[in-house]
Amino acid sequence: MAVVRQSPNMSAIAAALGVSAATVSNALSGKGRVSPELADKVRIKAAELGYVPSLTARALRTGRSGVLGLVLPDIANPLFPQIAQAIENAAAAVGYGVLIADSRGDIATQTEAINRLLERGVDGMVVVPRRATRIADIGCPVAVIDTPSTPGNTIAADHWQGGELIGRHLVQLGHRRVLLIGTHRDSNVQNDRIGGVKAGLGPGVDCDTLWIEKVEGEGGEGCLLGLADRVAAGFTGFAAVSDLSALRALTELQRAGIGVPERVSVTGFDNLIWSPVVTPALTTVRMDLATIADLAVAALMRAIEAEADADGAGSGRVSSAPDRVAMQLIIRQSSGPPGPGAAPYPAPGPYPLHAKIPTHPTAGEPQA
Amino acid sequence: MAVVRQSPNMSAIAAALGVSAATVSNALSGKGRVSPELADKVRIKAAELGYVPSLTARALRTGRSGVLGLVLPDIANPLFPQIAQAIENAAAAVGYGVLIADSRGDIATQTEAINRLLERGVDGMVVVPRRATRIADIGCPVAVIDTPSTPGNTIAADHWQGGELIGRHLVQLGHRRVLLIGTHRDSNVQNDRIGGVKAGLGPGVDCDTLWIEKVEGEGGEGCLLGLADRVAAGFTGFAAVSDLSALRALTELQRAGIGVPERVSVTGFDNLIWSPVVTPALTTVRMDLATIADLAVAALMRAIEAEADADGAGSGRVSSAPDRVAMQLIIRQSSGPPGPGAAPYPAPGPYPLHAKIPTHPTAGEPQA
DNA sequence: CTGAAAGCGCTTACAG
DNA sequence: CTGAAAGCGCTTACAG
Q1: Domains by residue range for chain B, with CATH
Q2: Using 50, 70 and 90 to split pLDDT, how confident is the model at B327?
Q3: Reported pTM
Q4: Chain A partners of B55 at a C-beta cutoff of 8 Å?
Q5: How far, rounded to the nearest angstrom, does the alpha carbon of residue A197 sit from its chain's CA centroid?
Q6: Which residues of chain B lie closer than 8 angstroms to A228, CB-CB?
Q7: Cα dist. B339→A258, A287, B231 in Å?
């Protein structure tokens, strides 16, 4: 029962050329020791035959799989797509593949997920730890993306500095009473962001923090945050520590008839997909995920190299020189001067119509 | 230069027990041919030594990698997390790993992504094709998740039926003039959904379709859809074909001072993360992604088996008996009877305060 | 500059 | 019921 071969192997190329497999290997890997002419012939023949190297065989031989694991705290997190995309790109750029593992927000599952990845022989892994979790030393290099203030962190966005950006922005707008909105008291990311916002606001601003303990759970649905009361109490700035909370705040305020941004400002974090399209568009701050991913992968590559050289298990958390990358403020319409009439905000209407309205839209065919 | 061994191999177990590696293999795989007692001894010794099988070696030997590829049209799609999670879980349940590939919404990149996966030796792949794209036969089994009406589709949510659910809901609420909102004319998914909504609304309802051509591009930001004019023109139902568009519609209407759901209803699609938390919470329809993923993976497993048996390349698109799975309507506050005062919707206030407000919130430490 | 040989860790006919 | 042997496709010292 011969295995179905999808493409020729090195021996086939070697046979076709009357040389040895070792020579084909050397020629293709470009590690020298083969005359330029022969190397060319080999390359040409390989292309001609549609040769695709077996990464599995290479992995078995070299002990390196060429695969990185990505474990995320909660795959349902709206930030996940961006992180996954950034890591996948960074990994692909250095010839690595990415195996995903979902930890479903659960600590036990996170450990299982890591083990599954280990069994599959990943050379290293990127983990975005579930909040309030530390990653133990496992059998391979690990790059942790959390916050700069977390022990064991490898690389992360500078959440504190991002918070400062928001704080300064709000104070410049003239806000003097700001409500911070977070969802998880035990999240390092959120605490850093909140610390940063307060620092950015400075001592002259009165602020309070509202923790929405379970934004997702049953009962979280449709439960209002009491923001209208806050407005009545004099709050004019609402700085959510995530775009999801910001959206929640924005819609609640609008629903209560409170003008954003004429009367109050709302800001978020992370520049999630909806932030540019809601009305008013959400002021937020974004992470440079591409850079973070590049640095995380680079750190992993260094550790993997080192492990191979040192022969000893260089496994463990990996660190890199700059452990934080700056966040960037994106000012949109949801933040403006406090108080009625303070800003010349473009009134809602007339509405520019940028979309075409077909008279006879085409529909797909039903299959029933 | 011995490779760093993280765990003993079969030979080590065999040596420790004075038996052959073949016997260890047979005992561990449970494929019989080993006395129960010996098998037990082997298992115990394996556990004792912390044996972890090398999936790479197994892959090389059997020609099966135990890995599935997942290629997504646009990893930034907010639905991605749910799909990835569902596929990862379904795959893990049958002992498979999942390698991701990002096609960045680009057709050429989609092909590259597929090739990268192929080179890594995936046994099969799940692809959610970019809209208006067909997946050519590649060298391995492929499960396509698109729409039941798309040729080559393996399994998908019944988008048309989901649309019908929305249509019927709106017509029951009394809406007689409905605006459908979509973003991509060439999307089979959106066209099926729109067809379904129209079918559900029936002939008695007047409807029109608004295509927001580039919701993401520059210039899409903050550009209003002219919904207030639509309301003035008598539209009371706004059925978006995605929750993102629904959110856009909802906030635009709110911003214009139009009460949702007292005056108009807004509905979405997909039950994305924000739909339960906005105010008013979004009525939407959800796919049963877990079932879809299970069926896709099961179809792939069958094809992989068949390929091994048939010896010939059974590669190509895979089909399964039921190619569609029903969608489920989730009624929330954003949809209600049309016209002012028609519904006893709970007025915005007094606000129940379900969140605790700490006096001295703890902040993380700045690292500057 | 090129080749023969060994070996990564498994699984699988085949013999005993 | 158990073992010796071959081999998946590579890479890497080591000889020539």
Answers
A1: 10-53 (no CATH), 65-157+289-323 (3.40.50.2300), 159-287 (3.40.50.2300)
A2: very high
A3: 0.85
A4: 119-121
A5: 21
A6: 348-349, 351
A7: 22, 44, 11
